[in-house]
């Protein structure tokens, strides 16, 4: 069976063009239709393609399925780059998440953004995002992936700054874009090194070359992998480049759900899984990935403990969960990481959209301290949020438990340093459970602290997608890591763990024991949150008062923004202003321009005396000039020089 | 009388033509430079053009090449066009300034 993969990106692109160019003139119903049809049709194409993978429909002509544009993209010497799309198990899972969750969030947005003036603009950007994201996922070589990578960054920038009249939103968009540039720099360096060392950017060719020569180990492969990791930390908001993601919450809530929780920020994880052969050949780079992931998971979770903005709590939890995925990648347990990516997309999109429903219901309020008691007013949203909270806290049988457990098990089974990573992961799980139940209690339990006495439940266009996501958040994990891993094996390698020399003895009892520990830890987090925010509501303030330094550190997010501001932003601004602007621009370049202008003006004032306006004087000069030229031609210069000055111009004379 | 002719060259030599041409050209240049009346200046220009024409024809004859003669036609054609335009300008200038003294027509000066 032949597929038409190019349809998957181009359908949303068509939606972008139609709504972007004509959106303001079309009736709203038509805008909605176009905006929803584009991702739905793309999802249908993906589903159609998926049949071949599950043996339901006709078999694909090849697996992985390649689609290469017959016209070469770049031909430069030995370097040859195609427009190539690859559909394998990995990109299929990603595409199902991107187009599926993407479609649900489009539906949600119809209700959520219905009153907004920029309705058509919003949907054109959202479709643009889907276009670039599917290019990123389908790309068969690193350069095409980079195109999608940059494109989703652009869409993210446009949507964070969607309310561009608000300065904080415009600033947040710029921050996200600039911080991502740093990561993109790493990605680019990685691409250059790939070209220099492998002479190709195609993922399959790189894998082939690596497989042929066992000499590829460490060294340059490590450098390439670490460069790619830098790119991934930018896009996936890991230490040290996570700072843009919390600010990205300035965008509309569905955007936070789709781009800054479910899909775009997972691009880094996807990229590592896609280029996993490189990482597999460099244990050092893998170790760095694991440590970055574990550190980020713990770091972000501690910040989330004391945040009061409902969306910021979720943003930090996203960073923390992405840290888990990186940890999984770093353990070479790529299928576990992708598994968590998928379940996280479900429950985090659910949590964000439910938070959006809460915010929508109480008139735009995002401060947890001004919520409370909403479970009676918003029963459906309450039930859906509960599903999301249970899923992210890691309580069975919700999806988050299975995927998080798979990663933690991989860490523990590795032994040695892996046990430390497992411990960090477990502590993070405790913190995760605590701050999510804190959010749950503060939002829905207790008495109302809101000024708006009449919150209203959201319409079904908002709740419908939520219900679907809730079902996925419950059942999404039941696939189980064994089946999921076996399905992904052709893409990311089944025995990647052994390939790097790590023992991975799968003892059922050990796995059950670790799962039990994780559940107990999650319950413990719930218990603490219950104590803090239901039974003894005075205790958080007491604790904060008891540890003022620690509380201040967390509430101010470890002063990282301030640190970057003082060490990077301010020096850069100073250099730009005092050196680049004043010295280089005004001093050197401006001075040069003034000097040239001055010379021209001076020469003009002198030479204008010649322009007497008297035609005969012009003619006299002309005649004199002609006479001079004639004289120059006629005179035998070498002979003259020899005769008068005694100079001999050998070989120059006529 | 016959003796006198027999001493002369059989054919007028090249240099004579060229000297005549140079003399005419120099006359044109000098006239252009020293004459004040615009019409005289204009005639000087015509003189220079025709001096050049003469050397063209001379060389054409000398080298048995027709190019020089063709060029002369071009020059004459341009000169005719120039005469038409130039005289029209002179008349226009005279109508505006009631003078043809070159020194007084100096509006091009800053």
Question: Please, could you describe this protein's structure?
Answer:
The complex is a heterodimer of chains A (654) and B (110). Chain A is mostly helical. Chain A is 73% helix and 2% strand. Chain A contains 28 helices and four strands. Chain A has helices at 7-22, 28-54, 89-112, 119-138, 142-160, 167-198, 203-212, 219-235, 244-247, 253-262, 267-274, 276-280, 283-304, 310-330, 334-361, 374-377, 379-393, 399-414, 417-444, 460-475, 481-492, 496-499, 508-535, 539-546, 548-555, 560-607, 615-634, 637-645, and strands at 65-68, 74-76, 79-81, 84-87. The longest helix of chain A is centred in the C-terminal third of the chain and has 48 residues, at 560-607. Chain B has 110 residues and is an all-alpha fold. Chain B has a single domain, classed as Helix Hairpins, CATH 1.10.287.3510. Helix content of chain B is 76%, strand content 0%. Chains A and B meet through helix 27 of A and helix 2 of B.
Short synopsis of the structure:
Chain A is 73% helix and 2% strand.
Q: What is the helix/strand order of chain B? A: HHHH
CATH topology term of chain B:
Helix Hairpins
CA(first)-CA(last) distance of chain B? 64 Å
Coarse morphology of chain A? globular
Number of helices of chain B: 4
User: Given this structure, which CATH class of chain B is correct?
Assistant: Mainly Alpha
Return the structural class of chain A. Answer: mainly alpha
Structural class of chain B: mainly alpha
CATH architectural group of chain B: Orthogonal Bundle
Strand content of chain A: under 5%
How much helix is in the residues of chain B? over 70%
Largest sheet of chain A: 2 strands, antiparallel
């Amino acid at each position: 069976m032949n597929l038409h993969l190019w349809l998957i990106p181009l359908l949303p692109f068509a939606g972008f063009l139609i709504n972007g160019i004509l959106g303001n003139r079309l009736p709203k119903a038509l805008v909605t239709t176009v905006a929803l049809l584009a991702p739905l049709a793309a999802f249908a194409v993906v589903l159609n393609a998926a049949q071949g993978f599950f043996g339901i429909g006709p078999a694909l002509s090849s697996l992985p399925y390649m689609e290469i544009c017959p016209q070469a993209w770049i031909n430069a010497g030995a370097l040859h780059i195609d427009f190539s799309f690859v559909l394998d198990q990995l990109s299929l899972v990603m595409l199902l998440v991107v187009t599926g969750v993407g479609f649900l969030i489009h539906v949600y947005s119809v209700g959520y953004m219905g009153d907004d003036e920029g309705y058509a603009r919003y949907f054109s950007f959202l479709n643009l995002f889907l276009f670039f994201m599917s290019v990123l996922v389908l790309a068969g070589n690193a350069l095409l992936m980079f195109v999608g990578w940059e494109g989703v960054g652009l869409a993210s920038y446009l949507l964070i700054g969607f309310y561009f009249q608000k300065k904080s939103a415009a600033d947040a968009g710029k921050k996200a874009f600039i911080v991502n540039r740093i990561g993109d720099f790493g990605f680019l360096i990685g691409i250059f090194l790939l070209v220099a060392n492998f002479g190709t950017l195609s993922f399959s060719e790189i894998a082939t070359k690596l497989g042929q020569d066992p000499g590829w180990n460490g060294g340059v492969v490590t450098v390439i992998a670490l460069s790619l990791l830098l790119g991934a930390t930018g896009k996936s908001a890991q230490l040290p480049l996570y700072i843009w993601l919390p600010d990205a919450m300035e965008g509309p809530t569905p955007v936070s759900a789709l781009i800054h929780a479910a899909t775009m920020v997972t691009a880094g994880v996807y990229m590592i899984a896609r280029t996993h052969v490189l990482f597999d050949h460099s244990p050092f780079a893998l170790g760095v990935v694991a440590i970055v992931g574990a550190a980020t998971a713990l770091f972000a979770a501690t910040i989330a403990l004391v945040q009061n903005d409902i969306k910021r709590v979720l943003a930090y939890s996203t960073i923390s969960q992405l840290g888990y995925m990186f940890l999984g990648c770093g353990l070479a347990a790529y299928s576990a990481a992708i598994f968590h990516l998928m379940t996280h997309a479900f429950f985090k999109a659910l949590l964000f959209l439910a938070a959006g429903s809460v915010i929508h219901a109480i008139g735009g309020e995002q401060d947890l301290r001004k919520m409370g008691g909403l479970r009676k007013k918003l029963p459906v949203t309450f039930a859906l949020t509960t599903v999301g909270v249970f899923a992210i806290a890691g309580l069975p049988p919700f999806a988050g438990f299975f995927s998080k457990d798979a990663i933690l098990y991989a860490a523990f089974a590795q032994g040695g340093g892996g046990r430390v990573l497992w411990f960090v992961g477990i502590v993070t799980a405790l913190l995760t459970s605590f701050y999510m139940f804190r959010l749950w209690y503060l939002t829905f339990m207790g008495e109302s602290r809101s000024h708006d006495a009449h919150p209203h439940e959201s319409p079904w266009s908002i709740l419908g997608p939520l219900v679907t996501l809730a079902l996925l958040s419950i059942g999404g994990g039941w696939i189980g890591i064994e089946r999921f891993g076996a399905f992904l094996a052709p893409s990311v390698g089944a025995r990647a763990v052994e390939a790097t020399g790590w023992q991975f003895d799968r003892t059922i009892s050990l796995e059950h024991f670790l799962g039990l520990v994780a559940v107990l830890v999650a319950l413990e987090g719930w218990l603490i949150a219950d104590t803090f925010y239901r039974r003894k509501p005075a205790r958080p303030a007491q604790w904060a008062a008891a540890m003022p330094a620690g509380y201040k550190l967390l509430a101010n997010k470890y002063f990282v923004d301030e640190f970057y501001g003082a060490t990077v932003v301010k020096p850069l601004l100073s250099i730009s202003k005092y050196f680049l602007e004043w010295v280089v621009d005004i001093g050197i370049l401006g001075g040069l321009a003034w000097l040239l202008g001055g010379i021209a003006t001076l020469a003009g004032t002198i030479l204008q005396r010649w322009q007497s306006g008297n035609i005969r004087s012009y003619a006299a000069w002309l005649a004199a000039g002609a006479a001079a030229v004639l004289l120059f031609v006629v005179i035998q210069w070498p002979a003259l020089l020899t005769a008068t000055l005694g100079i001999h111009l050998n070989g120059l004379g006529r | 009388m016959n003796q006198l002719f027999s001493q002369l060259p059989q054919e007028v030599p090249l240099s004579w033509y060229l000297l005549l041409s140079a003399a005419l050209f120099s006359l044109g240049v000098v006239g252009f430079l020293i004459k004040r009346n615009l019409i005289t200046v204009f005639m000087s220009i015509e003189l220079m053009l025709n001096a050049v024409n003469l050397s063209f024809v001379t060389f054409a004859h000398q080298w048995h090449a027709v190019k020089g003669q063709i060029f002369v036609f071009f020059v004459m054609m341009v000169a005719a066009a120039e005469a038409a335009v130039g005289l029209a300008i002179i008349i226009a200038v005279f109508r505006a300034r009631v003078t043809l003294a070159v020194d007084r027509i100096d509006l091009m000066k800053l």
